[in-house]
Amino acid sequence: MSVSRTAVKSASANPVRRAEALTMFVWEGTDKRGVVMKGEQVAKNANFLRAELRRQGLTPKVVKVKPKPLFGGAGKTVTPLDIAIFSRQIATMMKAGVPIVGALEIISSGNKNPKMQKLVNTIRADVESGSSLSEAIGKHPVQFDELFRNLVRAGESAGVLETVLDTIATYKENLEALKGKIKKAMFYPAMVVAVALIVSAILLIFVVPMFEEVFAGFGAELPAFTQLVIRMSDFMVTWWWLVLLAIVGAATAFIMAKNRSLAFQHFLDRTILKLPVIGQIIHNSAIARFARTLAVTFKAGVPLVEGLDTVAGATGNTVYEKAVHRVRDDVAVGYSVNMAMKQTNLFPHMVVQMTAIGEEAGALDTMLFKIAEFYEQEVENAVDALSSLLEPLIMVFLGVVVGGMVIAMYLPIFKLGAVVG
């Protein structure tokens, strides 16, 4: 621990030098007693690190750039959950009285994700050079979204940064849990359908032609269902590359249209909201995100109109995003939040009424948190119900697709057996 504390002091004494590009090094050396010591530390270059180790009373023997792992770690990205954990850690340490620079160093040294470690080191270097935390994270808009940046800025202005960071951590943890539940509902059936299609393609390309050669020696007319499957097999054998190209092309065109066309994105989101069961899950998820995000921004002291502008992008659905922008515009000209929400015809009556009660009682953030908790529970219940509903449907799908081809191949054999009998 003495090495780390000295490193922090040295960095604080020379903030300009630490603000430059930093690299993670591994080192090995001996102390004054001849005891071998090892460690990891960031520095501008190896010479700077050697000088730093000597100042700490160590004789460096080996100083080299930390190698990237062959598998796994090097490819890790910074996920929203990493940011949530970062926020929770720094809030906890600041509440315990640890200076922000020391907290950032502890978080960096204990993080196993190299990209997250590098991100935290960069933020620490900026803070050491005199930037505020909001300014430091503002240089990384991909990892720290507008909501995070606005809340940190508000927390710094009000002198309650650690409280705001703790609130952000809770918010992001709840949001990621909600996303996880929705992904869970979609992932399982999508994977089963994909596997069923792959198995069907393998049967059509490799297995059915073998049966076709056997059937050719029967000298009898094949059942219509068997002939249909054989024609499908002949098409797949001849044009499999065209089918594969069409699938890849369609998927690519869909992704590009979704990412580049706001009109297509809006059409897609509007269509998803109309789907049975799944549409209701997305509705409830958007309302939960809206309520929790607005509650967090309002509690942190962000002005209501500015908060609504940030909240719009957090709903996860362009239909709700446009609705929240409309709410923001109405609130900006003097409408109450509940009245503006009612005009959109998207928010359920219960949500509007609870918001109205919260506004009248001066406890809007508390009421919005209750709304978020209720709708998050609704999403969880709906996901469980959807999983129970999909299981028999998936079994039927597998039976029809894969089982149908198996039956088609055995029909001629059954017919031949009946004739011989």
Automatic annotation (TrEMBL):
InterPro entries: GspF/PilC (IPR003004), T2SS_GspF/T4SS_PilC_CS (IPR001992), T2SS_GspF_dom (IPR018076), T2SS_GspF_sf (IPR042094). PANTHER family: GENERAL SECRETION PATHWAY PROTEIN, PROTEIN TRANSPORT PROTEIN HOFC HOMOLOG. Keywords: Cell inner membrane, Cell membrane, Membrane, Transmembrane, Transmembrane helix, Transport. Belongs to the GSP F family. The keyword Nucleotide-binding does not apply. It is found in: Cell inner membrane. It is a multi-pass membrane protein. It holds the Pfam family T2SSF. Coiled coil: none annotated. Its main location: membrane. The chain crosses the membrane at residues 187-208, 238-257, 393-413. This is Type II secretion system F family protein. Residues 86-209, 290-412 form the Type II secretion system protein GspF domain.
